[in-house]
Amino acid sequence: MDLLKNIDALLITNPTNIRYLTGFVGAAPEEREAYCLLTNSQTYLFINALYTEYANTLVSPSKQGSNNPIIQFSNNPIKIVKISRGEPFAKKLGDVLKRSHLAKPQGETLKGIRLGFEESNLTVAEFEKLKKELPGITLVPTQNRIEELRMIKRDDEIENIRQAAKITDQCFTYLTTILKPRVTELEIAWKIESFIRSRGAGLAFSPIVAFGSNTSQPHYSPKSSLKRSHLLRLKNQDIVLLDFGAKINGYCSDMTRMVFIGKPEAEWVNAYETVSRAQTMALEYLASRPGLEATGDKVDQIARDIIENAGFPTYPHSLGHGVGLDIHEAPRLRTNPSINSEQPVTSRASQRLMPGMVVTVEPGIYIEGQYGVRLEDLILLKEDGIELLSKSNKHITIL
User: Fold this and answer.
1) What are the tens digits of pLDDT across the range 193-235?
2) Largest CB tally within 10 Å, which of 27, 221, 237, 393?
3) Are 35 and 11 in contact (CB under 8 A)?
4) Topology of the domain comprising 9-150
5) Band (294; pLDDT cuts 50, 70, 90)
């Protein structure tokens, strides 16, 4: 992919994309702690003095190589640029561009330079600041240039995800020993976090732990129970949905399993078997496509048809999503781009599934106010089929 197509340089503000390109991880990702500028000959990392020593480790020759995709992609060295209150980012960016080969004559004017920016991440206030501080420059909105690069995982990325999935599997095994009547959703959520962190990993996202009718909410939060006068406790005959994942070196895993406490109701079993059949057929379709001649919309439709033909409503989300440094990233496995999504739609090209992608396959059935069933596995797409990264038992689990 040509990251600089139709532009002279690309400004990266998304913290995850900056991490992917440079390895930089700030203490507060929700804040602007770093900026990255890509040209055809240099990668600039703008940071404040708090991170000088740390940033220097990112440009050390011993720290570069195969683990740094931008160096592998374009042979760009990384140059650290310090910013401060007295020398803010916009000013330093202008200085860098003027000194670069892009300014003509060099060192004097920014006129004619086309600077791309991530339109889904840069704020209006930041955009206006750049326009004011960089006279003559043309700001060009771009979409998903780094995200599409991130879709194909390197070997080291895959290994991190594989290890995160392993801890997630171990955690599910542990949960089957402590899911007993009278425990609360919050207690189980805390047990998940404690287990994962005790293994030296982080949480990929806040765990979804839902009992009973709460399972009908695809993205239910156990913290919702704090609003009640009494915390919901697991009953002797109940249904449990567990959706959680670990994170290793920044890379996520994601898995959903169902557990039944006591004899499950016949409708729960019917829904479970239908979801299981839908997921199995979707996985078999992916596995039967050497070279991955599959698309996300096709595999999504396979699962939806099975669920709808069984008389259940279709699920209100995509069949799956990419997983990597973000828990929800490209590609999307969905038939209709208008279906609710955790992330903006990428190009139709990103719907084509390719070797090296790591995605979830998670069909579900949700009966509002009654119950919900979802099964979710993490898979690696390969030239010769798929590798199932989630290995936890998917037979009906009755405790």
Assistant:
1) 999 999 999 999 999 999 999 999 999 988 776 666 567 889 9
2) 221
3) yes
4) Creatine Amidinohydrolase; Chain A, domain 1 (3.40.350)
5) confident
